[in-house]
Amino acid sequence: KSSPNSMARLLQAPPKFHPSEWDLANQMQRASTESQKCRSERTVAESQRLLDEIEKTTQKTQSDVNKKIEQRQKEIKFWKQELDNKLEQIVQETEVLLTFKTRLEKSLESCKEPLMIAQKCLLNRQRRTGIDLVHDEVEQELVKEVELLQEVIALLGRTLEQTNEQIRLNRSEKYSLEMDLKDKFTALMIDDYCANLTNNTPNISSCDSAMKTEGNFVSPEDWVDFSNVNVEKAEKQRSNSLALRALIDSILSQTASDLRKQREAVNTALANRVQEVKAAKHKLETLLAEVLDETASQEKNIAALRKAIADKEGPAKVAHTRLEARNRRPNVELCYDPVQHRLTREVQEITQNVQRLQDTLAEAETVLKGLSRRQLSLEEEIQVKENSLYIDEVLCMQMRESVCINNF
């Protein structure tokens, strides 16, 4: 409950103001409002200026960014074109180099048979006999041919290895270019997307995390360098590849020409040797014919001598019989008369002559044996030559006919 005092205080009338106070109060309200209004107008004007300025700046900046994006797109397209050109060149070069690799492989393969044939010829010629087993020009040229073929095989093998390595290097550069191009393509797609964005594009939103500046950003110089290095390395491998192809070309034609020359040298030596052996064989055959003629005539001679010796038997018997008969003459009749004298001489004469014929016969038989040995020796030698001819003309020459040295 309120006390009666407080009740009385509430019921008291509030204090009255003076009219001047009232006027002042009104003035103050007016002044305060005026100042507030002025401030507000200033703020509105400033805001308007700021709005215009920021709008202009925002538009200018966005259009500047758009220009920069456009420039960037041009730059990326330029490098993409450079990389594309290099890629096309290195791919083409590698394809051509692959055809050169095939040529090398074929050439290498084609050396195997000639080598085998040259070695077989050397082996076959070891089967020549007697004096014909000679280290002749054919042998020397065949040895040279084997050595040359082995050198060529080694050279082609090394060149093939080099070619495989160059193909690998070309492919490695191709891969680098493709990776770079793939990244450029992605970057271009992203910048194309950015270029097409407008303030009215739906579904775009702000995000603070996009504002990172440090970290993995690459400087524009490094960016250019990266592709430039890729292009330069690819160009270097391409020019290495071109040089290698020129080398392969010259190696293939040089080795084919060397092998052809050597093949001709062997073939010429073989043909000459065959002619020489044929001539020698012909001489031997002539000699053999002479020996055979001589043998026939000696055999006739021996037969004549034997007949002559046999023919002397009759006269000898007659003379002996006569002597024996006359030895039986009686007494004084046993006279050493001219008949006795002549008969005695006749027996001696026949004996001597038979001895002479027999001596001549023995000599003739010795000569005949000599001729017979000659005949055998010549026949053997002809056989040796026939064997040599068979080896050189039939085995070696025919085998070598199948050798053809192609230019691959």
Automatic annotation (TrEMBL):
Keyword entries, A-Z: Cell projection, Cilium, Coiled coil, Cytoplasm, Cytoskeleton, Flagellum
A Gene Ontology cellular-component term: microtubule cytoskeleton
Swiss-Prot/TrEMBL GO biological process terms: cilium assembly; cilium movement involved in cell motility
Coiled-coil residue spans: 270-308, 340-388
Cross-referenced InterPro entries: Tektin-like, Tektins
Localization (cell): Cytoplasm, Cytoskeleton, Cilium axoneme; Cytoplasm, Cytoskeleton, Flagellum axoneme
Top-rank lineage group of the source organism: Eukaryota
Family: Belongs to the tektin family.
Role description: Microtubule inner protein (MIP) part of the dynein-decorated doublet microtubules (DMTs) in cilia and flagellar axoneme. Forms filamentous polymers in the walls of ciliary and flagellar microtubules.
SUBUNIT field: Microtubule inner protein component of sperm flagellar doublet microtubules.
Protein name, UniProt field: Tektin
Organism name: Dryobates pubescens
Taxonomic lineage of the native organism: Eukaryota, Metazoa, Chordata, Craniata, Vertebrata
